[in-house]
Specification:
The chain has 75 residues and is mostly helical. The chain has 2 domains: 42 residues; 28 residues, no CATH class. The chain is built from 4 helices and no strands. 0% of the residues are buried. Keywords: Coiled coil.
Length: 75
Amino acid sequence: MARKGSLEAERASIAKERQALEAREAKLRDSERAASVELMQKSVLGKAPFERVEGFFAALAKLGLDEAEKRLRAS
């Protein structure tokens, strides 16, 4: 039979690993967001006037990402 202390230590170890993983995931999301911003800045959207970019994203929101991708691929 396992000792109560060893089970609690294992739970604490798992909790610590979970926190570390969550921190890694948050850092990855931040890196992905920064990469997205960099891609956009280098793209045609990054060079367009703000009003056009804003309108583009409004139209994209109305269509939805899947439909917009589908239409762009077809063109």
